[in-house]
Amino acid sequence: MRTLFLSLLTAPCLALAQLPSLTLEQLPRPTMPPGERGPVVPAQVERWRQEAKALEYGDGVRRDEVAAAKLYCRAARYGDAEAQYSLGWMLTNARGIQRNDAEAAHLFAAAAEQGMAQAQNMLDAMGGTPLGDPPPCLRPPEADPAPVVQAPKAAPPRMLAALPPPPNAPPAVVTFVNLVAPEYKLSPALVLALMATESNFDPLARSPKNAQGLMQLLPDTALRFKATKLSDPAQNIRAGMAYLRWLLAYYEGDIALALAGYNAGEKAVDRYLGVPPYAETRLYVRKIMAAIGGQRIHPFDAGIVSPSPMLLRLRRG
């Protein structure tokens, strides 16, 4: 009887000793979903995020965190801030997938730069600026044209062809741009297309982020390019042209990258190795590129600034 009693006491201990260990690193790591074929519309991106949320919480479907992470990843690549935040939260909390704070920091940064306060709070708690390359879930979609990485001795690009001004462009603004743009070695068509998208030619336009005037310049950017009175249309346009000229030099004439830098800042373009995954920026770039006929390269003044380190890195492969 005593032997039987002892065996009953030790049996649970033996069972526990035989259990395999379980660590956070043993949780599944979702793979990058394959690239999309054909155009992706905003409604599709929203559906991915909604399906991911249902899978994450088991809302009406069987709970599957790995599948949720893959769908959040799809939506994150197309600039959905909520998906970026949700995937970052899953990665920091090892919610059914392996923890990865480095990738999470990039995802929180992308969402924070689109105005999501919770994402900024998470990023601040993690120490601020993300380090290293962006994760696959923030790389530009395969359908995006690759950055134009020219050989150092490539033939100089040609100026954009003359195009009709936007229909609602005031004649006085068109005349001013046509006269002044050559001083900055800029195509008037590019400047007018940018201005139409930025302010719709409203000299008093002001964005929620305090970008002002025809070229929608932030006060710090205006001072950087010698504008002290943003309400003065001439100063505003000249400072915007100076910034656009600088961006074209920094990105060696790649119009899409220069436009993305104008909208989101050159640091974001460098961080994401191309047009950042922000829905607003992606739409902005597409709209202006369509207005100028899709031309991708613009002449630039290499003496203004050294090229972006991102371009040098892409050139090395």
Helices and strands in order, then pairings?
Blueprint: H1 2-18, H2 42-57, H3 65-77, H4 81-92, H5 101-112, H6 117-125, H7 171-180, H8 188-199, H9 219-224, H10 233-250, H11 255-264, H12 266-271, H13 279-291, H14 309-316
Please bin the fraction of helical residues.
40-55%
Strand count, sense and barrel status of the largest sheet are: none
Distance between the amino and carboxyl termini: 75 Å
Strand content: under 5%
Q: Uncertain segments of ≥5 residues (pLDDT<50)?
A: 4-9
Topology, number of strands: 0
Shape: elongated
Mean pLDDT: 87
Counting DSSP H or I runs of 4 or more residues, the number of helices is: 14
Order of helices and strands: HHHHHHHHHHHHHH
Structural category: mainly alpha
Radius of gyration: 25 Å
What do you see in this structure?
By secondary structure, the protein is mainly α. 51% of the residues lie in helices and 0% in strands. It has 14 helices and no strands. It has helices at 2-18, 42-57, 65-77, 81-92, 101-112, 117-125, 171-180, 188-199, 219-224, 233-250, 255-264, 266-271, 279-291, 309-316. Helix 4 (81-92) packs antiparallel against helix 5 and helix 8 packs across helix 13 (279-291). The chain is elongated and about 65 Å long. The model is unreliable at 4-9 (pLDDT under 50).
